[in-house]
Specification:
alpha/beta, 6-phosphogluconate dehydrogenase C-terminal fold, 8-stranded mixed beta sheet, 12 helices, 52% helix
Amino acid sequence: MVVGIIGLGLIGGSLAISLKQRGFATKIIGVDKNEAHLEEANELGFVDEACELNEILNKTDLVLLAIPVDAARQLLPFLLDQAKDGQTIIDMGSTKEGICKVADAHHNRKNFVASHPIAGTENAGPSSAMDGLYDHKITIICDEEKSHPNSIELCNKLYDVLKMRVLKMNAQEHDRHIAYVSHLSHITSFVLGQTVLEIEKEEKHIFNMAGSGFASTVRLAKSSPEMWAPIFEQNQEHLSTALDAYIKNLQEFKRKIDEGKKEDLHDLMSEVNDIRRVLKGI
């Protein structure tokens, strides 16, 4: 099978490596508007051929969209306009409501599958790509009843090769849940990094005191703004609700500290330790 991948950074590059090495793709054709990324992907050897965007559907059986969610939403109608019977377009974005609304308005909606493989690192670009990025992670397929059964079957095969566990849900449900379990954690990390950087301007030794706890908590703040700013914009409604709940809990935690309520803090943290149970399922 000839697979086209639009976007050759961490997500698209890792797809290319795994799908080629595991025999799913006989050939990988890559597209990236960043010429440096395209050149790097060729040098790293995970793209067999590069082509222009308007040629991708003439050369491939399957196209994977691995670009920022706002760009994917804008590009999808152009791709669906050219899609022929039997061709499938799958997007990998972290928000689903917006792109599904665009797809729903197109006469070739059946050629599209909305998916979200929940995998990644804080790194970006072709050099960050790796085999095994998706292994044993969860992926979500949204609104599958609107896609052609053959496209859904192909998508399931794709994620089986990537060793991912597939969940199914509607696009709105996906965006609401992902706001809490993914997007909120990135915002927390960005804001923690912002807060510490502001303090560091006055306290020059603060980073000498930073330990592994700080490093692990702020790791996500190294994530690409080009990728995450569109995600936050696309999931504004659900993320705002999640932030309201988070800010409320932060204010309550601060109140307990201000009032010296050690026992209340102890009890609250003991309850939250139950997060271990949740994390064991990941």
